[in-house]
Amino acid sequence: MVTATARDVREVAAQVTDPEMPMLTLADLGVLRSVDTADDGTVVVTITPTYSGCPAVEEMRADLRRRLHHAGHERVDVRVSFSPPWTTDFISDAGRRKLADAGVAPPGHIGPRVAGPVPLNLEPPARVVACPQCGSRDTEVVSRFGPTACTALRRCRACAEPFEHVKEI
Fold it and tell me: What does the alpha-carbon distance between residue 114 and residue 169 come to, in Å, rounded to a whole number?
């Protein structure tokens, strides 16, 4: 059973926003994995960054510490775990709505990973991505690389608006 204190601590940590996509909290993004309170009162937060070289991980850690210290928790330990690895399927439904509301096309669901060798395909996956502005499915890739490692740049052929798309990982 979760104590009220543990629930309160989780609520504080869950409100920290992602430094690269500030419309999402770390909880929305699925980066916030666990929040526990140790016997000595230390708050232990575990996060899984979107990928191992994520440049925002230190900022996430600092923001979590700052927010929890501000909420009165003196001892905060923010741990990074890569197991299980983060996937875009960890993004909550609320997070997907927030992305779309901010004009960023959310990723599709990729489902469970298949055990065994991963087939090598050097071609980018053909993907229909709806425009977050007008809903048209007639969009095109402008660049497979966006302002963050997990996004691509696309353009809608119907309304001519450019937009970011969070790539499925």
Answer: 14
**Tens digits of residue pLDDT in 6-53:** 788 999 999 999 999 999 999 999 999 999 999 999 999 999 999 888
Cβ atoms of 167 and 107 closer than 8 Å: yes
This prediction has a pTM of: 0.80
Rounded to 5 degrees, φ, ψ at 27 are -70, -45
Q: Helix (H, G, I), strand (E, B), or coil: what is residue 125?
A: coil
Smallest CA-to-CA distance from 21 within 135, 150, 139 is with 150
CA–CA gap between residue 79 and residue 42 (Å, rounded): 12
Mapped onto helix, strand or coil, the DSSP state of residue 107 is coil
Closest-CA residue to 25 (of 80, 122, 99): 99
How many Cβ atoms sit within 10 Å of the Cβ of residue 130? 18
pLDDT 10s digits, 57-115: 999 999 999 999 999 999 999 999 999 999 999 999 999 999 999 999 999 887 776 66
Helix (H, G, I), strand (E, B) or coil at 112: coil
d(C-alpha 161, C-alpha 169), whole Å: 25
CA distance 72 to 152: 40
* Sheet strands side by side (includes 32-37): 32-37, 43-47, 76-80
